[in-house]
Amino acid sequence: MTLRLFLALAGSVFCSAVQAGEVTVAVAANFTAPMQQIAKAFEQDTGHKAQLAFGATGKFYAQIKNGAPFAVLLAADDETPARLEKEGLAVAGTRFTYATGRLALWSKQPNLVDDKGDVLRSHRFDQLGIHKIAMADPKLAPYGVAAMAVIKKLGVQANVVPKLVQGDSVGQTYQFVSTENAQLGFVALSQISLDGRITQGSAWVVPQSMHTPLKQDAVLLNAGKDNAAAHALLKYLQSDAAKTIIRTYGYALDH
Amino acid sequence: MNLNAEDFQAISLTLQLASVTTVLLLLLATPVAWWLAHTRSAWRAPVASLVALPLVLPPTVLGFYLLVALGPNGPIGQFTQWAGWGTLAFSFWGLVLGSVIYSLPFAVQPLVNAFEAMGPRPMEVAATLRASKWDAFFTVAVPLAKPGFVMAAMLSFAHTVGEFGVVLMIGGNIPDKTRVVSTQIYGHVEAMEYAQAHGLAGVMLVFSFVVLLGLSWFNRRPHRHATRHQKAGA
To answer: What is the pTM of this model?
Structure first.
């Protein structure tokens, strides 16, 4: 009896020691805050540890292509994971959309941005004190592509384009607006909202119908093919616990 | 080579930025270096350290402070708004300001060395010949320190061309205003346009090598130069 108990205990200790792995994850910059929280919960619930690296998806792509040891990529788009899979750098059939980003037009100043984005139609930018409007570079960031689509859809290119400044990612775009070097900017809703409320300034949450959905896909990379922790993390991202956190930060989940 | 119109625009902007920065730096660094080379003040060490700070600070620190300082609530931003220039972030002159700070030690140090190597004698001799201080400075000190000026100019220019982090943080990537070669390369790499990245990166590599090669050739000459001047002066 005591021997069996001992063996069972030893067995479980042994097993958990084998199971508690580590996974290195490349995370899109806009997903920084929710991912930190998810990683904490993931560690508590599964014993696995997730090492997070945050950055621009394009940079991660270049690094992965050149042998970076990431096991999982949480991209800011759905193209990069598909591309990695096609190029044989990611495990086929492991892609899924972990979150859908929401775009917001944001200003540090209260009351500057109305809830329809009409401020962009204004012909009095100078009187309103709007000298610069920030967005992510459409060449580099899906949030930039979405912002450009919104500007075109509103038909305000002529007014807005001369005022544009571009961040290399939505993270840098946020810096420009939060330091008020740009008075307006298209940022990720996840950067400025918590629990469904805009944390400071004023914002217009752009309807998703105005741009192609900001689908953010996850994929298992070759380096993580045999890593139990990597598999567990991908599963965990689709759990209710993770989804609750993801929603808290203003992402949509349509699956 | 795979350079497109935007790449050439970036090259031309980079050369403009480096030229303006170099001229301003020589004007600013000369009095600072002169003072550092001659003063016995207790402020010498703190000022020398302050000038050398950009050598060791990561560009992200400079860029971050500049972004905050240039903003409407920052000290520089408040001044430029008061002066009626608006705010400087995302403008060519914002980059000039950043570059001047970033490359300051590269202009000051060669000049300090040149002024110190000159010693007090030439200026004393000029004074006994009743040359005014300014006259002596321009007709005696500047020619004697010429190698220092050339080196300061070349280093400032090359270092500004190679600037990246500060521009990235305060530039905003505006074509023809703030999109320089280094940020254009970064954009190509991030956008996975590796062929274009290679083209521009190759240009940078060759340019930097040529500048350094020119500097080391030039560095072998000043001895002959200085002795000739001294003979002429003696």
So the answer is: 0.79
In chain B, how many domains are there? 1
Contact A132 B89 (CB under 8 A): yes
Q: Residue A237 and residue A240: Cα distance in Å, rounded?
A: 8
Q: Which residues contact A141 (CB under 8 A, 6 or more apart)?
A: A56, A57, A76, A167, A168, A169, A170
Q: Which residues of A touch B87 (CB under 8 A)?
A: 131, 181
Q: Do domains A2-100+214-248 and A103-205 have the same CATH topology?
A: yes
Residue of B nearest to A170 (CA): B172
Q: Label the pairing between strands A184-188 and A133-136.
A: parallel
CATH (residue range A103-205): 3.40.190.10
* A interface with B, Cβ–Cβ below 8 Å: 56, 58-59, 61-62, 131-132, 134, 137, 139-140, 164-168, 172, 175-176, 179-182
Query: From chain B, which residues contact A within 8 Å (Cβ)?
Result: 67-68, 70-74, 77, 86-87, 89-90, 168-170, 172-174, 183, 186-187, 189-192
What does the DSSP 8-state code read for residue A73?
A: E
Contact between A167 and B172 using a beta-carbon 8 Å cutoff: yes
Question: Whole-angstrom Cα distance, residue A123 to residue B153?
Answer: 45
Per the structure, the complete domain to which residue B161 belongs is given by 5-233
Cβ contacts from A onto B, under 8 A: 68
Domain ranges of chain A: 2-100+214-248, 103-205
Beta-ladder partners of A25: A52, A72
How many angstroms separate the CA of residue B28 from the nearest CA in chain A?
27
What is the third-level CATH fold of A2-100+214-248?
D-Maltodextrin-Binding Protein; domain 2 (3.40.190)
**In the predicted model, is pLDDT for residue B32 greater than 70?**
yes
Nearest to A132 among B90, B189, B191 (CB): B90
Spatial contact of A23 and A236, defined as CB atoms under 8 Å apart: no
B136-B137-B141-B146 Cα dihedral, nearest 10 degrees: -130
Between CA B121 and CA B183 the distance in angstroms is 47
| A174-208 per-position pLDDT tens digit | 999 999 999 999 999 999 988 888 999 999 999 99
Q: What is the pLDDT of residues B60-89, one digit of tens each?
A: 899 999 999 998 889 999 999 999 988 898
